[in-house]
Structures are given as C-alpha cells and as structure tokens.
Amino acid sequence: MEWALTQVGKPYVWGGTGPGGYDCSGLTMRAWQNAGVSINRTSRDQYKQVRKISYDSMRPGDLIFYGSNPANPDSITHVAMIIGGGQMVEASRPGVPLRVTPIRWSGTMPFAGRP
Question: Which segments constitute the NlpC/P60 domain (predicted)?
C-alpha cells in the first residue's frame, strides 16, 4: 500500500504497468509485487485469484473490486486498493491521475480480496 501511494499523481495509462503510468490492475499488481507477492495482471483475474474477505474485515492493502453483475467475476471492470480511514488509492480512468479518494460502494462485488 505504501508503494502505491508513492505513485499518486502519475497518469492513468490503459494497460499500464509502470513506471510512467498505470491502469487499475497494473497499479494493484505492482503494489503487491513491491511487497513480495505476485498477483495476476487483470482485475478479473485478480478477483478470481485472491482470498475473498468481507468488507468489514478489510485492512490496508486489501483490494476492492467493481463490476456490473455481483454474481459474475467476468463483469469486473475496476480494482482499487484500500488504504484505511474510508479511503482507497486507484487508477480510475483516462484523464484522471492516480489518486486517493473515498471508497465508492456502488457496484462493488460481494467480497473484497486479500492476496
């Protein structure tokens, strides 16, 4: 999580895995890689790979996933990293630099994830 915060302000880059810019899953993949943990590249694959945890047991570094169908992991379109205090760090979309923002609950999958 601490590494991800050092990336805040860098540009969103579709398919980006750094160091100049990231997309959502590129950011979370590299953040966990910097902590010595290998996770898959895409948000969908990350959700399928991680241990599912309840939202009330989240801790900094856990991942929160967003999709259009809570019953279908293949509907996932976004992943962000919890930093605590109701905040997350994310690479949200083109034109918006990597940022810290309040957690959005709309469109979340049934579980958060812990690599």
Answer: 1-115
pLDDT, tens only, 35-60: 999 999 999 999 999 999 999 999 99
| Alpha-carbon torsion (44, 91, 35, 65), positive or negative | negative
CB 39 within 8 A of CB 89: no
- With bands split at pLDDT 50, 70 and 90, how would you rate the model's confidence at 100? very high
Q: Find out if CATH 3.90.1720.10 is the number for domain 2-114.
A: yes
Indicate which residue of 16, 23, 28, 90 is catalytic.
90
Specify whether the CB–CB gap between 80 and 89 falls below 8 A: yes
Is 24 noted as a catalytic residue in this protein? yes
What DSSP assignment string belongs to 55-99? Answer: GGG--TT-EEEEES-TT-GGGEEEEEEEEETTEEEE--BTTB-SE
From the candidates 4, 62, 78, 112, give the one annotated as an active-site residue.
Answer: 78
Dist CA 61 CA 111 (whole Å):
14
| Residue from 24, 27, 29, 50 carrying the catalytic annotation | 24
